[in-house]
Here is the input.
Amino acid sequence: MRHLGSAALALVLAPLACVLADVGFFKASRASALYTGKAQFGGLALGVLLLLLAGAMIAALILPRFSPVGPAALAVVLVALSAWGMLAPENMLKTVPIKSIAGVPSPLVAPFIDGLALLLAVPLIATVLFPVRWRGAATAPVTPFGAAPTGYPPYSPSGSPYQPAHVGTVRLNGGQQGLSIDFAAPAPLGLLSGDVP
Here is the structure.
């Protein structure tokens, strides 16, 4: 069922993204200052909006953990149609009767002739290379903060925890008082050895 859902989604989104991207490129390039001498912001904004929408559609096919079967199968179709459009563009233009939509010439054929569909097919084919896409929607178990990750032994500190030194006074030879330090661990660097006058 997961494979059918991804195939249906890819069948709708990928061709629509190709057409929107081609129309967006056409509108943005015709509205740019390079083409007209002065930028036409309405056409430029429409072109950019269509390009962003097309990119979001392709991202919706690539990023979620859907089955890779649908996007990859449709990518193969896009590659085949791109080969047809690049090798026999006149034949493709005669086969698809729609000549213009919203002032854009041949928007259903142009993505295959100019190679845009081929460009969009590459990330769709790449979805089969990621093993996580084949596993489905299972999530990894959550590890509590500070706990060892699954498969690792639990954390146990080596040795005993730090023990403070015990300090006291002692009577030295000649009636003087001295300081006695008893370390739980060895004396640091061997500098103190017990009684300090």
In short: Strands lie at 100-101, 104-105, 166-171, 177-182, 195-196. Residues 2-135 form one domain.
